[in-house]
Amino acid sequence: MSNEGFTAGGELSPERTPLGASGSAGSGSLTEVASSTPRRGWLMWLVGWGAAVVAYGAPIVAGLRAFLGPLGQKAQAGDFRRVAFLDAIPEDGSPLSVPVLADRVDAWNRVPNQPIGGVLLRRLGPDKVLAINVFCPHQGCAVEYQAESKRLFCPCHSASFDLEGKRLEPNSMSPRDLDILEAEVRNGNEVWVQFMNFRTGTPEKIPE
Length: 208
Ligand code: FES
Known about the structure:
alpha+beta, four-stranded antiparallel beta sheet, three-stranded antiparallel beta sheet, flat, binds FE2/S2 (inorganic) cluster
């Protein structure tokens, strides 16, 4: 058996060591064995991290989206809120259009008094008010009061409603009447409305 390349003590001889770097077939196997061990370790580490990202990354991203998404940005709709004073509403029964404001909240911020919709208020008696959501149930345009014809009119596709919010055309573009909201007069002169928006395009009144 030849001891070429090794010292008497079995160590690799110094003059043979550069052959591993020369790329010759015979000596290359020694250096590849030496250098492939750390390379294999890195590969295993990367494969492990890839598996962890696949296993845990998607749920983490989904959780962040839920945290930062629309559910985290609710505008506190559905609560009673004061929208007007009674004495500002015309006594002749014509509607007053007022915006509805609420604090908009996301993951880090609360922005006060942001518009979330609007209502038409009609005075029905000394302590009774009719509140109609201003959004048309067809596609959500804001309806307007037309004093000449005493009706509510949607400018987007020409749907008309009476002052109770009922559809006037038998083949109305709107799939339902305007959405009536709960309203109360409190403390003699304050008008409070339980404000909410509803899904458009459906015959049913479905809160959003
Ligand atoms: S949005 Fe009102 S009729 Fe279409």
